[in-house]
Amino acid sequence: MLTVLEKRWPLISILLLIVLLASLLIWHSIARTASIAMLVLGPGMAIVIIIRRQSQFHRASNIDRTAMLHHIFFEVLGLLLAIALAILLSQVAAGVAVPLLGSGLVSTVILMIAVVLLGLGAAWLVKVTWGRWTKAQ
């Protein structure tokens, strides 16, 4: 069951994001529920995948239990750091772009694209720097 969910998670995540965006435009009554579901399911599933992958390494006798817990801790901490950095950069971008662009539909789309690119950049930055730091230990 978890393997099937893990294989299809990118598609499920994209569909949930589309439902969230549609709920903001069409179904205002479910927008809050959809946003809470995305905020819980996104990082929650990422943490489940991290734990599952590390437990598979442990069961294959590649690592011991202490190393498994060490890897889980630092991977989850890196994930949370990437999320926090993406949120911070998105807020800065919104604070700078809204006074410059205004509040129209085109400016909202431009801001959404910029926020997605900043989120990807934050994830890449954390992956590179966090990966170097954890490998040095």
Describe this structure in words.
The protein has 137 residues and is an all-alpha fold. Helix 1 runs antiparallel to helix 2, helix 2 runs antiparallel to helix 3 and helix 3 packs antiparallel against helix 4. It has one domain. The chain is built from 4 helices and no strands.
**Shape field:** flat
Question: Largest sheet, described in full?
Answer: none
Secondary structure tally: strands:
0
Q: Whole-number radius of gyration?
A: 18 Å
Count of discrete structural domains: 1
Q: Point out poorly predicted stretches.
A: none
The run of helices and strands is: HHHH
How much beta, percentage-wise? under 5%
Q: Fraction of residues in helices? A: over 70%
Q: Count the helices. How many?
A: 4
Distance between the termini: 35 Å
SS-based structural class? mainly alpha
Q: How much is the average pLDDT?
A: 81
Throw out a few tags for this protein.
137 residues, mainly alpha, 4 helices
Helix and strand arrangement:
Elements: H1 2-25, H2 31-59, H3 65-101, H4 105-136
Helix pairs in contact: 1-2, 2-3, 3-4
